[in-house]
Design a protein that fits this description.
The chain contains 12 helices and 6 strands. By secondary structure, it is α/β, with parallel strands linked by helices.
């Protein structure tokens, strides 16, 4: 099936990214009402929604914590709804305790999934400095999965560099509905475990067989055997794999490459947070920002 890009809608998305208008929900800027708590501590002065909005601005415009505070101090003169904003230390502390939704996209809306990983540099000294003066190059692995129908991210998880690319495969499958569908991954997922996981959740795993792959008798690998037959029938070379890719729809995996490119152009290839938990919160907030941009242009 040929998928043609809707250029009118795509151009609209690109234009909307550059707009500087601010639509401020009054509820976000209102202070939290004091509530009785089981534990004796001071009630929160600023809502989670306000802290989350400040984090959005910080990551969108690549600001430091102090610059974010100054940005919002200037903003309140225009909206005239609050007298003060959280200081940079409050933003940092509250970001770690943000209560975020469990799902990026509603589970019932996700049938097919595309999965891939990329690397993000840890905020700090650059690679040139590590190369010249010693020290280990530090980076994190970002696992992304999206719904090809809506283009929205279904999963965005941050792990250490040694974690396998398919570590979150089952988590991704749990984020989809039980309808028959496809899950597209690169050749690293060519294993019995991955095929069995996909079959358990009523999904067809599309991943190119390894070079020199042979037929196997396991029930979960029958789709893999079919792929081997097709590739061998067309010459068992790179062109044959390309033909197989178009026949079964594996060529749609290119959209996750576009998403990775979009992520790094919007948010950069580094992480601004230092604490491990805040790095994961930062990743989740950036994923929600991208989904909101896609939703506004739909």
């Amino acid at each position: 099936m040929h998928h043609k890009r809707d250029w009118k809608n795509y151009n609209k998305q690109l234009v909307n990214r550059g707009k500087i208008n601010f639509w401020v929900d009054p509820k976000i800027l209102q202070k939290c009402e004091e509530q009785k708590r089981k534990k004796a501590w001071r009630p929160l002065l600023y809502s989670d929604a306000l802290i989350q909005s400040m984090c959005y601005i910080r990551f969108k415009f690549h600001l430091s914590l102090r610059e974010t505070e100054g940005f919002f101090q200037s903003l309140i003169f225009f909206i005239k709804m609050v007298s003060k904003v959280p200081c940079y230390t409050q933003i940092c502390r509250r970001m770690k305790r943000l209560q975020l939704p469990a799902e990026l996209v509603a589970k019932k809306d996700v049938t097919d999934i595309v999965l891939d990983t990329t690397g993000l540099k840890v905020h700090g000294a650059g690679e040139w400095r590590a190369e010249k003066y010693g020290g280990r190059k530090r980076w994190k692995k970002l696992h992304l999965a999206l719904d090809p129908e809506s283009g929205k991210l279904v999963l965005a998880e941050l792990t250490d560099e040694h974690v396998h690319d398919t570590a979150h495969l089952e988590t991704v499958l749990k984020s989809s509905n039980g309808k028959k569908g496809k899950i597209l991954i690169d050749g690293i997922a060519d294993s019995l475990r991955c095929y069995e996981l996909a079959k358990r959740y009523n999904k067809t795993l599309l991943t190119p067989p390894k070079t020199g792959a042979v037929f196997r008798q396991e029930d979960a690998l029958q789709g893999r055997n079919d792929a081997i037959r097709i590739i061998r029938g067309f010459g068992n070379d790179r062109t044959a794999k390309s033909i197989w890719s178009k026949l079964v729809g594996y060529n749609r995996r290119c959209i996750i490459e576009s998403m990775i490119s979009r992520w790094k152009r919007l948010h950069g290839a580094t992480l601004r947070s230092h604490c491990e938990h805040r790095k994961k919160v930062e990743t989740r907030l950036k994923a929600e920002m991208i989904n909101q941009m896609i939703g506004m242009a739909a």
